[in-house]
User: Fold these one by one.
Assistant:
Number 1:
Amino acid sequence: MNRTFSIIKPDATQRNITGSINKIIEDNNLTIVAQKRIKLSREKAEGFYAIHKEKPFFNDLIDYMTSGPVIIQVLEGDNAVEKYRKIMGSTNPENAEEGTIRKKHALNIQENSVHGSDSEENAKIEISFFFNENEIISN
Ligand code: CMP
């Protein structure tokens, strides 16, 4: 049993499809053990995506991630990091497999509806960037 960090992004909150995304998560045996709807500050978004600071899409990414509410989540289950990456599908929805969140909902490579941690180590870092341990309540 382990955990991953998830963000349901502004394109999804904007279109009222967070329930549909949560259903896909739960149908795949991941449990939402923490969840908050927040508005990211520029500072927080830049800190979270610091690894992409030199990328050409960085400024657009920060504009987008601060453009509306996001839902931040901790997901728990067997192989949570790997499993959620599979359920999300490729970063670019054009390459995402049938049945994935991004294939179903993402608009383009930037407005791709969800973020998930890419490793166990980053999951721990990302979770603690947004949540205190006492806010995470397992079944
Ligand atoms: P995410 O998995 O949250 O990680 C970085 C985000 O940058 C990515 O999802 C997209 O929302 C956004 N992005 C925009 N352009 C690109 C790109 N060319 N390659 C990767 N990510 C991109």
Number 2:
Amino acid sequence: MEGKEQTVREINLLIPGPTPLPPEVRAAMARPMIDHRGPEFGQTLAAVLAGLQQIFQTTAPVLPFAASGTGGTEAAIVNVCSPGDRVLALTCGLFGERFAAVARAFGAEVIEESVEWGRGFDAATVEEALRRHRGIKAVLVTHNETSTGAANHLQEVADAVRPSGALLLVDAVSSLGALDLRMDAWGIDLVYTASQKALMGPPGAAFVAVGPRAWEAVSSSTMPKSYFSFARAREHLTHEAAYTPFTPAIPVVRALAVSVGMILREGLPARFAHHARLGRATRAGVEALGLRVLPDPAWASDALTAVRVPDGIDAGLLLRTLRVEHNVVLGGGMGPLAGKILRISHMGYVQEEQILAALGSLEQVLDRLGHRVTRGAAVEGAAAVLGG
Ligand code: PLP
């Protein structure tokens, strides 16, 4: 309890990554440094990778890299593709566009299929794109589009891609640990994520789960790669001890050993239900303030809520006032959504008290900036969901 209260009082960090850390995860990073080729590190990394396999819901090897999530993006592309490969990028926001841009930068022929920001892809749109564009080697999709707060229905996308024979590569940077993702059961070929979001770790590590069909592509891939070589990373992994070819982010790996253990002890169904509950509560809270959630309800993410800033309200001033006067840190809009939305994260270790406190503060600041609100409505709206 004390830990939770402290988190709220210190800084109510509700950006969609980096996310708040459990006290025991923070403590794991404060220990004396160890040898990255010694037995303690080898066993710790092996345990993290085995735990992550359970969260990816796969038996495929999980490869670790000292990198941010975008390192995972680059690793996925350069190991699976060759210059000139036709790649279908399903984009519905900034991170989907980045996935496409990385593939383009390394010489893939990228065909971008977009839907309006705030929506995700339905099966018909994916099937139709694959009918129009033949010879697609890989389909790229972002599970949870953090820039819009829309989550793709990944199983539906995977079912639509499968008959084409194309590989399916998934950016799960802001979804793994928050939203159900069954890599093997849904027939997904490659998934990557990062340490600093729903996995409740600090920034600094990317992980890529590589399935059998993706490994086949790896053996013939000719895109340039060195640091991010899957073949080289795999050589250093065994069940008993796992190492990396280059210096790993030791404190990050130790932190994840704790947070991954916490996630698995709680159990994936309970973790996903927790995120769904906070998602419903946050949406109810902001709607009770008269605000509009950006994404179409069919795709509204349970990992974060993107909310339109009302006309006449300066988004920068709103975010600044929340930060300076209320200690509440929310995300702003990115790219074309800058100044138009705010993003409230409920991924990872975020507690319901933090969401209620943020909604209460949001209500006060909006009121002061001249947006008409019903006092107490936001917290009541969210609490009704949380109590139910
Ligand atoms: N993909 C998604 C869906 C993300 O949310 C992010 C970061 O927010 C990234 C990729 C990029 O991750 P990083 O900033 O760790 O490189």
